[in-house]
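INFO batch 0412 | record 1 of 1 | parsing
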Amino acid sequence: MVCTSIRRNLLASTIIAGSLIASAPAFAQGTAAAPQPDATAASEGETIVVTGSLLTNPNLVQSNPVNVTTAEEISLRQNNVAEEVLRDIPGVVPSIGSAVNNGNGGASFVDLRGLGSNRNIVLLDGNRIVPSGLVGRVDLNNIPVALVERVDALTGGASTTYGADAITGVVNFITRKDFAGLEISAGTKITEQGDGNYNRVDVTVGANFDDGRGNATLSIGYQQSDPVYQGDRSFSTQNLSSFTGSPAGSGTTVPARFSRTGSPTQQINPTTGALVPTFALFNFNPYNIFQTPFQRYNIFGTAHYQVADGIEVYTRALFSKNTVDTIIAPSGVFGSSLVFPYSNPYLPVAARNQFCAANGLTAAQCTAAAAATNPADPNFRTFTTNVSRRTTEVGPRISDFVTTVFDLRAGIRGDITDTIHFDVSG
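INFO prediction complete | emitting tokens
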């Protein structure tokens, strides 16, 4: 860690005060001297510890912005997951979280300065946490929010201390130490419309033993939320263009769209059965959700014991199981090139005649091809066209993500001298 003593500030104040007195005119020297700071108080000044570095190297003392969020603030905001705690910190760009539907694999990440969620380091009590994927990102859903004492977010570059992973900074979750007693907390949230229930229960128990030389703490948590669909709100029923503000949507729609080489995209008019050069966009908003439904179990245990003066053994264990259901609009055929026989029974007569004319078939050939259903028939013909169609018949796309995380760490730490410390863990 980087330690900066306030005695430097007091000494600077003393030097400045002395300079002002020395430069005062002679007629002012008869006035009473201002009280000077007590040198004893300066020498016994309180040490200010700035987390964000585990290395006590004076060459690493620098001015970096450290944002601290306390447990009181977390309780006041009713944050249920660690990702929500970080959203209000300057320099944090909202990344994938509990409110993200498309592209959410059931995890929550932090993105500092908008440079990517894989360019920072997330620590728990100064130690790394097992990542949730191959790119090294830490799932914030695994953080035991009930035991968090504070969150230190170093939003400046920390690569010189932590390596290339800490390009945009470090987020350190500090848990409560020497917790003793029993704490039970429960809460529920609900929207003004009466939906989107969000339930949370945490039970924490801890005790000191051997006259305070050791402590063991266990925290168990459960969280669950219901979905909130965009179609259930009047302001989000229709998808809108971010540029014009007018209704928008996807070109993969219903009825199907057809496009032939050298001709504009066309859609079958359900009334006449003919291809028309216009089409209606697919409104996918009613299928999307504001709040992703999930169910999560968290277990976190920690213990430490002072085996001798200045020597302490410690351990921590973390288990998390997170189940997330993401829901998005129905799938479909996205502009694929398909081959159709002219005898397809679902092809309207008017549209068939248009395809025949576009491919140079005479009226007699088109009629014969419409009646030929056997590929061996010499009148059997096919045509190729690009098709875009949303398969609403099969319903929305639902993905179930189940993530199970185990993290175990044990180590020994202590002081060799007043300035030499060690910490070995794995």
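INFO post-check: Helices lie at 7-22, 39-43, 71-77, 82-86, 159-162, 349-358, 363-371.
INFO record closed
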